[in-house]
Structures are given as structure tokens and as C-alpha cells.
Amino acid sequence: MIRIFIFFLLSFILANCSLNEDSKIWNKKKKINIEKNIEVLFEEKEIAYNELNPNIGLNLLNIDIQNKILDNKNNFGIQKYSGKINKIKNFRFAKFHNKAETDLSPLFLRDGIIFFDSKGSIIRFDNNQKIVWKKNYYSKFEKKNHPKLSFMKFNNKLIVVDNLSNLFLININNGNLIWKKKNDYPFNSEIKIFENKFFVIDLKNVLRCYFIKDGSECWSIETEKTLTITNSKNSLLIHENVVYFINNLGDLTAVDIFSGDLIWQLPTQSSDIINITYNFKNSRLVSDGKSIFFSNNKNEFFSVNLKNSSINWINNISSSLTPILIDNLIITVSDNGYLFVVDKETGNIIKIKDIYKINKDKKRKKKIKPIGFSISQDKIYISDNDGKLIILGLKTGNVLNVEKIARNIISKPFLYNNHLFMVKNGTVVQYE
After folding, report:
1. Residue-range definition of the domain harbouring residue 209
2. Fewer CB atoms inside 10 Å of the end CB: C or N, the chain?
3. Under 8 Å between Cβ of 97 and 118
4. 141 lies in some domain
């Protein structure tokens, strides 16, 4: 009897739902427009630039040409490379799970490179592309989380930190583990070395100092914590016994390298940045020994005095790419593809040139974003998210050539030892 009653009750409900014009379940005539009730907060506004002196040539006589990939002030300047983008070597590894990884840097050696694969295996290649050693120090669980590694060389040792909170030291000759430690939070920065210590920043915006010998912590200093996690790497530099670093809230901080005591701190953003930090990106810090130069994707380019944190100048350039210093000039590329030449002392913009002006497809042009750039003695090499390498003349800024490197996103171009290197998913490619 109860079953019959339930049957009739359900039939009645379904009949009324399907026949009632005002039913919210079956009615196709009336739709709730959810989009009208959505309010967009912190909407991105792309900066529109106009070209300025696009045809002016730069006087670059007696420029200093470097041949380095490591510098505690991140001041790499012009690197030696006179090649013609002829591919000569492929260093292959297991492809990354995330094809959009771009801020991955191989460690370059005189006799090869060191890199890692999708499961965190560290691989040393010789110059003939052969594997010298391959080591993995991760658990099965950690391998499934696709570790993202950063390297720094110290004598015959390799310092490694990752986004899974691990830090370890490896013998660079055979890959054997010397020690391995665990931090409370993942690391999210480049590594810097000073004497017997190294420095790195974690996701809680804490700068940590470790002894290289055993991985014990010498000191740490906290800055304001962020409410969200960002994939953008934080940057630091070292000059005259002071370590300078910027967190993902835009706070620039100077710390005594021996004691960890705060020297000064300069907030560059309002408190509102806390709400949009997931999309806030700073460029890498660069210094000439007098000032620190950096920019962000919120239309701000800073020059800050090293000694007292006073702001020398701020200019309206939106870029998360590392600027390059050449004598009294700064060269950078905006996030929407404009080449800028800036006077280092005054901040005055000397030249603006539209890199993607040759692209006639306006819709396609808006989707293309520069990833990074490097400068040789006569050319500028710019990679983008379309897998292309754009080659400009250094003096003129004119596009000389466009090389298709990959179908997907690629890394910034690395110039070292008169060669050009590019990282794409599954391969580090070397060009002569």
C-alpha cells in the first residue's frame, strides 16, 4: 500500500514539474541570466603604447661584452654570441606535465649542462649530449607532484631547491646526495651564494639563509605574507654584504648578509595588491652597484637607490621581463611586445618600438606575449608564447628574422659561451 502511495505521489510531482510553465527545472523559455549578476573585480587593463623615435639608432661604441650566466647583481649585460641560429644539439628529457612552464633555467657548465625532468630526476649532460649521471631523490608521491627545481653551482657541489619544500646538496661530479633537508613551505625564487652560505625565498615571503656545508639555517627574515599562491618567481641580489630581495607583494627589502637584520624596506604597492597577488608579477632585480632596477606588470618601472631605498624615478612601463643594462641605457620589453630604451640615470624613455608591428592579424597579435630576451653584441633575441624567436638589430631595433622554435611555449633565450640555448618541452636545444 505504501509503495502504491509513493508511486502516485512521485507521478503527481513529476507531472506538475513538466507541465508547469513557471517550472525552473524543465522550463526552456525562461533562463536565469547569471552573467548580469557577476561583477568583475580588479580587471586587467592593457597599457596602450605609441612608438617613440622608432627609427633612431643607438650609439653602442666600446660596449662591454660578457660571457657569464651567473652574477650576484643579475647584471649580465651584453653576452657574446655571433651565431646564425643553426641547431647543433638536443639535450632530451622526459616532458613536463605543465606545457606552459617557462621560467625554467638549465645550469650551464663548461663541459655540458644540468637540467631536470617531469619526475624530478636531475640529469647531467656532457657536450656530446650524453648523460653523465641521472639521479632522483624523490618519493613516489613527490614524483606525481612534478617537482620544479632551481640550481646553483658552488665549487664541485650542486645546490638544489624545489617547489615541494625540499633543499639538497649534490656532488656535481657523480650526482651523489650529500644532504637533504625539508622546509616548512615550498621555495619560489632563484638562489644566490655568498661565501659559505646560500639564500632563497619561500612561498610565505620568508628569506632564508642556509649553510652550504650541512643545510642548517643561519637566519631567516619574514616579510608580509600573501593570501594566495603565485607561480611567479621572486628575485634577490647581493652587493657589498647586503642581500636585496623582492616578495610577491612588491616589498623591496635590504638585509645584512651576516646577521639577517633588516636595513631598510620599501613597499612599492598599496594594500590592494593583496587581493590581486595571484596575477601580480615583478621582473627580476638588476643592479649596477648604485641602484636597483625592476618593473612589474602593473605599469611601473622603478629605479631605487641601493643605500637608502630612495626612489630615483618611476616610469610607466608594464613588464615582468628582466631588464638589461648597457652602459647608461636600460633595455626592456613590455608584456604586450614593445621594445623600450630608457636612460638609466633619468628614467627618460629614448625609444619605443612595436616588435609585433609586422603581424597584420590584430586578434592574433593580442594573444602573443614575450617570454624573455637576451642581447648579444649586435642583436636582441626575444622569445614568445607562440614558440617563436624574434631577432632584432641592436642598434636599430628592426626585426631581422623570425625563427620558429616550437609549436608550444618556449623559455627565454640563454646566451652562453658563444651559443644560444632554448628550453622547450622535452628538450634543451643548443644553437651555434
Report:
1. 104-230+233-280
2. N
3. yes
4. yes
Q: Tell me whether residue 327 is in a domain.
A: no
Q: Tell me whether residue 139 is exposed, middle or buried, using C-beta atoms within 10 angstroms of its C-beta: 0 to 12, 13 to 18, 19 or more.
A: exposed
Distance CA 347, CA 21 (A): 67
Strands 177-182 and 192-194, sheet pairing: unpaired
Angle at the Cα of 247 from the Cα atoms of 241 and 251, rounded to 5 degrees: 85
What are 393's three cell numbers? Answer: 638589430
Spatial CB neighbours of 61, under 8 Å, sequence gap ≥ 6? none
Radius of gyration of the chain (CA): 26
Please report, as a single letter, which amino acid is at residue 319: S
- Of 319, 318, 335, 317, the C-alpha closest to 385 is 335
Q: Are 101 and 148 in contact (CB under 8 A)?
A: yes
- The answer to whether 350 and 53 are in contact (CB under 8 A) is yes
| Torsion sign (Cα): 372, 375, 333, 370 | negative
Phi first, then psi, for residue 363 (nearest 5°) are -65, -40
Can you give the CATH number for the domain in which 191 is found? 2.130.10.10
Q: Which three cell numbers stand for residue 222?
A: 619574514
CB 420 within 8 Å of CB 381: yes
Report if residue 80 sits inside a domain: no
In this structure, the strands spanning 112-116 and 107-109 are antiparallel
**Which three cell numbers, joined as nine digits, stand for 187?**
621555495
Strand 217-222 and strand 235-239: the pairing is unpaired
The SS3 of residue 215 is coil
Question: What does the CA dihedral 303, 309, 312, 318 come to, rounded to 10 degrees?
Answer: 30
Distance of alpha carbon 47 from alpha carbon 139, whole angstroms: 45
Please say whether the beta carbons of 136 and 119 come within 8 A: yes
Cell 597599457, residue? 47
* Per-residue pLDDT reduced to its tens digit, 168-197: 999 999 999 999 999 999 999 999 999 999
Query: Could you tell me which of 306, 225, 234 has the C-alpha nearest to residue 264?
Result: 306
Q: Is residue 255 one of the residues assigned to a domain?
A: yes
Length of the chain: 432
Total domains in the chain come to 1
Q: Tell me: the pLDDT tens digits for 269-327?
A: 876 655 555 678 999 999 999 999 999 999 999 999 999 999 999 999 999 999 999 99
**Which residues are paired to 287 by β-bridges?**
292
Residue 365, strand partner residues: none
